[in-house]
Task: inverse folding
């Protein structure tokens, strides 16, 4: 039975169909992944209404956290990068401290994991690619800057009808478009856009690390749980470099 090495918990937006398959693909042998759906209404994955859905998820975060904590995972992660952008650095730190104290479980987020990954790789000049609308993209840029990162280029995915309908091929093209010579790393933000199967190809083609929210989140959760985060085939971060 999986879970004898570690149990990892993830809080997901209610309509996200992509993050569970990606996390199952990334989990090492003996590690189990468990999911709680957050509370939000409206059209999942659409640009319109994204801020309202994000706020609803944050307003109701205790319900799924309480339920997920019952399986006694080593860590619970907020698998929604835009929530961190809405909270800001101080807001996320306060939320993390409260949830850890209240439910006696380690807590992190996809975005906190990205920051930890950047520090681990020793990079700070970032090319940012997102599937978001302009306002959420700018919020992501601002969140990176709050942590002392230099965002040297930003690109948004064009003609997005619904983030959850995007493809790895489009994620690959977005990363290549975002990349610039001065960027030390390319960051593909958001857990709703599938990314993990193109990370290795991107790193070979661009000659630098490429991090996605999902890959960084799994890497960080494994580190918190005391499991060596080595999962070959999904970029330098998870190769153990």
Result:
């Amino acid at each position: 039975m999986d879970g004898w090495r570690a149990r990892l918990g993830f809080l997901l937006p209610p309509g996200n169909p992509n993050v569970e398959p990606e996390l199952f693909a990334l989990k090492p042998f003996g590690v189990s992944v468990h999911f709680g759906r957050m509370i939000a209404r409206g059209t999942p994955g659409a640009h319109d209404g994204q801020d309202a859905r994000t706020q609803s998820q944050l307003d109701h975060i205790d319900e799924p956290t309480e339920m997920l904590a019952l399986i006694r995972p080593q860590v619970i992660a907020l698998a929604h990068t835009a929530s961190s952008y809405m909270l800001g650095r101080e807001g996320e730190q306060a939320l993390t401290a409260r949830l850890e104290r209240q439910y006696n479980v380690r807590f992190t987020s996809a975005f906190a994991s990205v920051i930890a990954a950047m520090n681990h790789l020793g990079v700070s000049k970032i090319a940012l690619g997102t599937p978001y609308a302009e306002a959420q993209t700018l919020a992501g840029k601002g969140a990176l800057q709050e942590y002392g990162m230099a965002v040297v280029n930003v690109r948004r995915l064009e003609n997005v009808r619904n983030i959850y309908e995007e493809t790895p091929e489009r994620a690959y093209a977005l990363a290549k478009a975002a990349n610039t010579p001065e960027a030390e790393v390319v960051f593909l933000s958001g857990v709703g856009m599938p990314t993990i199967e193109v990370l290795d190809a991107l790193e070979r083609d661009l000659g630098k690390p490429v991090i996605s929210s999902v890959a960084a989140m799994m890497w960080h959760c494994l580190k918190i749980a005391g499991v060596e985060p080595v999962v070959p085939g999904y970029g330098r971060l998870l190769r153990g470099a």
User: Anything to note?
Assistant: The mean pLDDT is 95. The radius of gyration is 16 Å.
